[in-house]
Amino acid sequence: MVIGDWLTRRERLTPNKVAIVDTLHGDRRVSYREWNQVANRTACFLRDRLGIVKGDRVAVLAMNCVEYLDVWFALGKLGGVMQNLNWRLTPHELTGLIRDVSPKALIYGSEFTAQVNEMRSNLPSVENYVAVDLKAAENDCSLSERDAFDPIAPPQVELDWDDPWVICYTGGTTGSPKGAILTHRSITANAVNTIVSWGLTQDDVAILDSPLFHTGGLNVFTAPLAYVGGTSIVCKGFDPDQVFDLIRDGDVTIYFGVPTMFIMLQQHPRWPEADFVKLKLVISGGAPCPMPVFEKFWARDVDFKTGYGLTEAGPNTFWLPPEDVRAKPGSVGFPLFHIDVKIVREDDSECEPDEVGELLIRGPHVCAGYWNNPKETKEAIRPLVDDPNGPTWLRTGDLAMRDVEGYYYIVGRSKDMFISGGENVYPAEIESVLHAHPAVAESAVITVPHEKWGEVGRAIVVTTEGEHLEENEILEFARQRLASFKVPKSVVFVEELPKTGANKIDKKLLMDNYGSP
User: Fold this and answer.
1) Which residue has the higher pLDDT, 424 or 311?
2) Which of 48, 54, 51, 49 lies closest to 5 in space, CA to CA?
3) Is the dihedral of CA 177, 47, 226, 236 positive or negative?
4) Using an 8 Å Cβ cutoff, are 63 and 34 in contact?
5) DSSP assignments along 123-149, one per residue
6) Count of CB atoms within 10 A of residue 156's CB?
7) Domain-by-domain residue ranges, the chain?
8) Residue 26 half-sphere exposure, CB side, CA atoms within 13 Å?
9) What is the pLDDT of residue 97?
10) 315-360 pLDDT per residue, tens
């Protein structure tokens, strides 16, 4: 079945609709017809110049750019598989990931020439190195060579829904990253679920400033908008000033970010003057979002809400109707159209309302498992204990609860939760409270061993510019708002919190640096 050539299908339906606004090249506007022609040239270049055929992998190490999207959708036409690499990783870490997937080609941005040169001798599978622009290293080719190829689509490739399209690595903030196999089925199902459940249309315009090595950059809005015929404004990365400019001057209707991005926007001098009237949807994901962030948006009459997803599923999984945003603060709402969820105890029995358990997910948007990792795949995607021959469920490792009215809430990562004196403690709850302090810019809570209580919390705090706080001030603020067993027993002040490439707080690095008693 021909299922991978999205852009040829979309061009036939809406050839003159603007698909992309390229902010890296003077806000260049690209129609679906123009984009498809470039993607066709790219596909022919990959096939005829690099020898890429169905099933071959192509790694990409680059900042956000239109060329990145060209490669992604060109590989869809060929049945090739994109490995999107986190550019914040070291050459040593990247080498391990690339060797795991054995791509035939590595496409890189000129910013990463030094890293690529350092890895070359350790990447036996890579036959061709391709620079995104003209600044190719000696003996490498440039993606600009595609201009000499035909803008007509290459011969159609027969694909199955379960054929892989992207190998996207999990964030790795709590352990080693794993390559989730995103198939044509899972990416398409996420697009359909999002369009139908979130109400996306051809009139929607999104800012694409989340990194494309992360599922949020690929699949929260980018793929769904290409599917429905909307527009993505491609930005090199997250820049608060640029976001405010685009909201003021552009036709932006939807915006996705992680909590850190929204906190930076709210701390920016332009926040008070920003006009969000044209935005129908602003959604946070990737990590728990502190309640004060919600409240500042609500005070501006923006229905800001939190979403939930993960690399292995979608990532879009829930939807909270606009009328419930303030009535159900912090809720992610209900499962999307073609998704089932379940909250279970350790023995896989289903939890009662308001009982915290592990969130399980099933649906066509779930990945096909982890690349070259059958052990982890079998552990993560398996049937319920009491139904061994039944359907498989994705074990998210996330803790959730459902209230009596059926609304779902994400409590935190099971690996983040700790037990102090026999009581379950969820760092996300504490972080939300600490963030409400007017002198706190950011906070994170980790655990440290304790002789009496087993484990206790330690708050890592960044103060707002020009402010000074003492440890006892933070702890007293927490005591007034939290049960005593939840209050951190120590505070460490730092200039900034380490972030992953997706702008999430790097808890693993915090534990390495501050997790000793």
Assistant:
1) 311
2) 54
3) positive
4) no
5) -TT--EEEESSS-PPTT-EEGGGGGGS
6) 13
7) 27-159, 216-412, 416-514
8) 0
9) 92
10) 999 999 999 999 998 899 999 999 999 999 999 999 999 999 999 9
Supply the angle between the helices 32-44 and 66-78 in degrees, to the nearest 10.
60
- CA-to-CA distance for 128 and 157, rounded, in angstroms? 23
The kind and range of the H/E element at 381 are strand 381-382
CA distances to 444, 462, 507 from 459, rounded to whole Å, are 6, 10, 12
Whole-model pTM: value is: 0.86
**Fold type of domain 216-412:** Rossmann fold (3.40.50)
| Confidence grade of residue 429 (pLDDT, cut at 50, 70, 90) | confident
Fold of domain 416-514:
GMP Synthetase; Chain A, domain 3 (3.30.300)
Confidence class of residue 174 from pLDDT cuts 50, 70 and 90? very low
* DSSP 8-state symbol, 280: S
Beginning with the edge strand found earlier in the chain, give each strand of the sheet holding 105-108 in spatial order: 141-142, 128-131, 105-108, 57-61, 81-84, 164-169, 179-183
Asked whether the beta carbons of 493 and 440 are under 8 A apart, the reply is: no
Mean pLDDT, rounded, for 85-108 = 93
Indicate the pairing of strand 418-420 with strand 340-344: unpaired
Q: Within a 10 A sphere around the Cβ of 322, how many other Cβ atoms?
A: 12
